[in-house]
């Protein structure tokens, strides 16, 4: 972003087109996955398993059933609340408040993208440290 004004930065995030808003829908990857895949963050998709880290529902783990890129929020399977009329609706959690515990790698393109990201990270670490990194 060009501006250092917070209001303009917020406006740019709120008015971002879908292809940019989707990229902002990232979350930290669990330590086990980070060691296994060699990535620190990943874009959240339907089918991933996440754990809520903040708020009243912290500790809850479930599968992502819906994603709202414009709002930056996700719905998790089984995480619902009752409305006044008794109907149950999903609780929408902000993407930054969850941690990905299992990635859905059934999509071939996503699997390749994650492998490429891990490869780039490994090369960067080798360049910075000047040593061979295992993995």
Could you name the key traits of this structure?
alpha+beta, 135 residues, seven-stranded mixed beta sheet, 33% helix
SSE inventory with pairings:
Layout: H1 6-14, H2 18-23, E1 26-29, H3 31-37, E2 41-43, E3 49-52, E4 61-68, E5 73-82, E6 88-94, E7 98-102, H4 108-129
Parallel strand pairs: 1-7
Antiparallel strand pairs: 1-2, 3-4, 3-7, 4-5, 5-6
Characterise this structure:
- This protein is globular.
- It has 135 residues and is of the alpha+beta class.
- A 7-stranded mixed β-sheet has the order 2-1-7-3-4-5-6.
- The two termini are 35 Å apart.
- The chain is 33% helix and 30% strand.
Please give a quick description of this structure.
The protein contains 4 helices and 7 strands; from the N terminus they run ααβαββββββα.
Question: What share of residues is helical?
Answer: 25-40%
| Spatial strand sequence of the major β-sheet | 2-1-7-3-4-5-6
| Strand-residue proportion | 25-35%
| N→C terminal distance | 35 Å
What is the structural class? Answer: alpha+beta
Following the backbone from N to C, one meets helices and strands in this order, namely HHEHEEEEEEH
Query: What is the number of helices?
Result: 4
The main sheet comes to: 7 strands, mixed
Radius of gyration: 17 Å
Low-confidence stretches: none
Shape: globular
Mean pLDDT: 92
Count every beta strand, where a strand is a DSSP E run of 2 or more residues. 7
């Amino acid at each position: 972003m060009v501006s250092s004004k917070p209001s303009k930065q917020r406006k740019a995030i709120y008015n971002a087109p879908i292809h940019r808003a989707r990229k902002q829908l990232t979350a930290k990857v669990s330590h086990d996955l980070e060691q296994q895949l060699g990535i620190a963050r990943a874009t959240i998709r339907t089918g991933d398993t996440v754990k809520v880290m903040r708020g009243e529902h912290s500790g809850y783990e479930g599968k992502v059933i819906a994603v709202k890129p414009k709002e930056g929020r996700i719905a998790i399977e089984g995480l619902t609340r009752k409305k006044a009329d008794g109907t149950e609706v999903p609780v929408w959690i902000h993407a930054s408040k969850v941690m990905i515990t299992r990635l859905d790698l059934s999509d071939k393109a996503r699997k390749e993208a994650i492998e490429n990201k891990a490869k780039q990270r490994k090369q960067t670490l080798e360049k910075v440290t000047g040593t061979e990194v295992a993995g």
